[in-house]
Write a structure and sequence with these properties.
Blueprint lengths: L1 E6 L7 H4 L8 E2 L2 E2 H11 L4 E6 L3 H9 L1 H4 L2 E5 L4 E5 L7 E6 L6 H7 L10 E5 L2 E3 L3 H11 L3 E6 L7 E5 L2 E6 L9 E2 L3 E3 L18 H7 L3 E6 L3 E3 L3 H12 L10
Parallel strand pairs: 1-4, 1-8, 4-7, 10-15
Antiparallel strand pairs: 2-3, 5-6, 8-14, 9-16, 10-13, 10-14, 11-12
Protein name: Glucose-1-phosphate cytidylyltransferase
EC number: 2.7.7.33
Enzyme class: transferase
């Protein structure tokens, strides 16, 4: 099963980082968030990736071309023009990076990689800026069991602000960042039938506004409910929160050894 990751947006709300690199290459614990997302899927045995690049996509290509170089010790023999790598590990990943246009919308990017999908074989799809302790294997099994065109991971968003409990005129206690209001939202981490690409007419198609709404209206979109950890990285504040979790050694999305 292939995994498609949308990684081409401008990341304007994280301009402190994205002025020099695409958002999926912004690092958590010294590794791009894109690497973290791919590691989640790889933990569940999915290691054939299609990266939908756009803004500064050449840096994503360069990252994967030089991945082993970046994360291993090396000996360079200039006389023989050879490089020997020492220690480290090489992910068992197959990575296809596709230029899906600078200004394509989310649906448009998915439409651009239709020729890389396997006809009749479901594929996973997610955004290049969010992590979670999603049970991908369970979601894939759930998707295969219901026979619909699409499955969406439905999550409860993390709270942004602390709350207070008030009795009369007295504040009696504080609650640290309670989770949302009970409503679930699109958490990415989709499982999709390749036929959904036929719902994308152009680069201007927004996946969430057109195809996803059609799937919901026609009872072709199932919800895989996830009650564990999920966190997007839309702002510098959220990036710092993820960094703190990683530095503490308690990152909930780190499912791999």
């Amino acid at each position: 099963m292939k995994v498609v990751i949308l990684a081409g947006g401008l990341g304007s709300r994280l301009a402190e980082e994205t002025s020099i690199r695409p958002k999926p290459l912004v690092e958590i614990g010294g590794m791009p968030i894109l690497w973290h997302i791919m590691s989640i899927y790889a933990h569940h045995g999915l290691n054939d990736f299609i990266i939908c690049a756009g803004y500064k996509g050449y840096l994503i290509k360069e990252y994967f071309v030089n991945l082993v170089l970046h994360h291993n010790d090396i000996t360079v023999d200039l006389a023989s023009n050879s490089i020997n790598y020492h220690g480290g590990t090489r992910p068992n990943w197959r990575v296809t990076v596709v230029d899906t246009g600078m200004y394509s919308m989310t649906g448009g990017r998915l439409g651009r990689i239709r020729d890389h999908l396997t006809p009749g074989e479901p594929f996973c799809m997610t955004y290049g800026d969010g992590v979670g302790d999603i049970d991908i294997a369970a979601e894939v099994a759930f998707h295969r069991s219901h026979g619909l065109k699409a499955t969406m991971c439905a999550v409860t968003p993390p709270g942004r602000y602390g709350a207070t409990n008030i009795e009369g005129q007295f504040i009696t206690s504080f609650v640290e960042k309670p989770r949302g209001d009970g409503q679930r939202i699109n958490g990415g981490f989709f499982v999709l039938d390749p036929s959904v690409v036929d719902l994308i007419p152009s680069d201007d198609t927004i996946w969430e506004a057109g195809p996803l709404e059609w799937l919901a209206a026609n009872n072709q979109l199932a919800a895989f409910k996830h009650d564990g950890f999920w966190q997007p990285m839309d702002t510098l504040r959220e990036r710092n929160q993820l960094e703190e979790l990683w530095s503490s050694g308690k990152a909930p999305w780190k499912l791999w050894a």
